[in-house]
TrEMBL record:
Keywords: Cell membrane, Membrane, Transmembrane, Transmembrane helix, Transport. This is Cobalt transporter CbiM. Pfam families: CbiM (PF01891). Gene3D superfamilies: 1.10.1760.20.
């Protein structure tokens, strides 16, 4: 779901950079530096998952795992995702440096929003935790697809078809991400339950 260089309009690019800068700054301020290793590992998981593309019709889709990052990192998902996207742009030319702000916001904001909405469910037990984790994974991808499609649509009517194609291609990914996030959270609840208790603010 990377937006390539030369696609977005100037105002959309500027808005993406401004929003990503605010989110990343807040994420760094809230970051518990004792958990840097956790942030690094999840950033690496996001980096690797986004490299595996599956063709779906005229476009391709891939795992994102932004919901999982949001569930565990909260606001720290912003810097984690930003670093992963930066490395992808530099090493593999996925996305680009100019659109890094928009791509970061499109992936990270849904992660943080889902963390705020469903985070309390993750600290419960049983079915409630599983449902909350599934919702984190599902809705983080849903919102990311909507934000990406919106950024394209705001950049010109010529991109409307591509915007719809991106959104529709990620519908099955939403379900898969929900299941993966639920399984990962269930596992972490057994072996590292403290990871699910990170607060977004003090």
């Amino acid at each position: 779901m990377h937006i390539s260089e030369g696609v977005l309009s100037g105002p959309v690019l500027a808005g993406g950079w401004a929003l990503a800068a605010v989110g990343t700054t807040l994420g760094l301020k809230r970051l518990d530096y004792d958990r840097l290793m956790t942030v690094a590992m999840l950033s690496a998981a996001f980096f690797v998952a986004s490299l595996i593309h599956v063709p779906i019709g005229p476009v391709s889709a891939h795992l994102i795992l932004n919901g999982l990052l949001g569930a565990i990192l909260g606001l720290a998902a912003f810097p984690a995702i930003c670093v992963a996207l930066l490395l992808q742009a530099v090493l593999f030319q996925y996305g680009g440096l100019i659109v890094l702000g928009a791509n970061t916001f499109d992936m990270a904001f849904p992660a943080v929003l889902c963390s705020l909405v469903f985070g309390p469910w993750l600290r419960r037990t049983g079915t409630v935790r599983s449902v909350g984790a599934f919702c984190c994974g599902f809705f983080a991808v849903l919102l990311a697809a909507l934000l990406t499609a919106t950024a394209l649509a705001l950049s010109g009517e010529a991109f409307m078809t591509t915007a719809w194609a991106i959104f529709l291609a990620h519908l099955p990914i939403m379900v898969v991400e929900g299941v993966i996030t639920a399984m990962a959270v269930g596992f972490l609840a057994k072996v590292r339950p403290e990871l699910l208790s990170i607060r977004l603010a003090e």
